Amino acid sequence: MIEIESITKSYEGRQVLQPTTLHIDRGQTSVLIGPSGCGKSTLLRIIIGLIEADSGEVRFEGVPLTPDSVLQARHRMGYVLQDGGLFPHLSIFDNVALLARHLGTLTENDIRTRVKELADLTKLPSDALSRYPQQVSGGQRQRVAIMRALMLDPPLLLLDEPMGALDPLVRYELQEDLKSIFAELNKTVVLVTHDMGEAAFFGEDCILMANGRIIQRGSIDEFHSEPAEDFVTQFITAQRFPALRT
Predict the structure, then answer these.
(1) Is 221 helix (H, G, I), strand (E, B) or coil?
(2) What are the tens digits of pLDDT across the range 103-129?
(3) What would the pLDDT profile of 195-210 be if each residue is shown by its tens digit?
(4) What per-residue string of b and e applies to 44-59 under the rule 16 or more CB within 10 Å gives b?
(5) 3-class DSSP assignment, residue 85
(6) What are the DSSP E strand ranges found in 73-161?
(7) pTM of the predicted model, to two decimals?
(8) Are 31 and 203 contacting, i.e. CB atoms less than 8 angstroms apart?
């Protein structure tokens, strides 16, 4: 599904990503985890083509991402930001329908049907669809952002700390619902977080990064039992990692 080969990225002479190689299989949920500034969000933005790597290659469904191919590829990726990235002047319904209308891929009847399906899937109350982003809660805004990412039924979902700004109870509930959605839809998912508990909850495929490089890949249990280097243990200990949730 995603093949990343030896990509690098620097800003103003500072190397944000050291040579990085990573393959993510179709239907897999992978979690990029690490401290702030470790390169995980940069890697995600390179995958979706928002920024370009200095060197190396990214392939999506076997096709290299280039300036000529990235726009078409991006239409087959759903992207969710930490703050949702919703347009405040558009209703919830119109935020979700925006790209489908722009591309002309669905009729208005199909759009209404699809939005209703996604509202049911994400447990968004139907009466929220006519409201504006500032008129709903933070948790509901993130549900809308997920609906928008799923609108065109992309095979790949990319989520950049989608629950980082939510209070603990709302975050817990959304985590539970997202895990169910991922399992039901069988999407390929790449999720960025700095929270070890969240990483453990979402996937067996956790990718720990630091200083622009991948330190270790595997399950959280493997991070505990077989740390690749001292940083792995330090990162887990610093978070006072809680018991796993099932």
Answers:
(1) helix
(2) 998 999 999 999 999 999 999 999 999
(3) 888 898 887 799 999 9
(4) bbbbbbeeebeebebb
(5) coil
(6) 77-80, 156-160
(7) 0.90
(8) yes
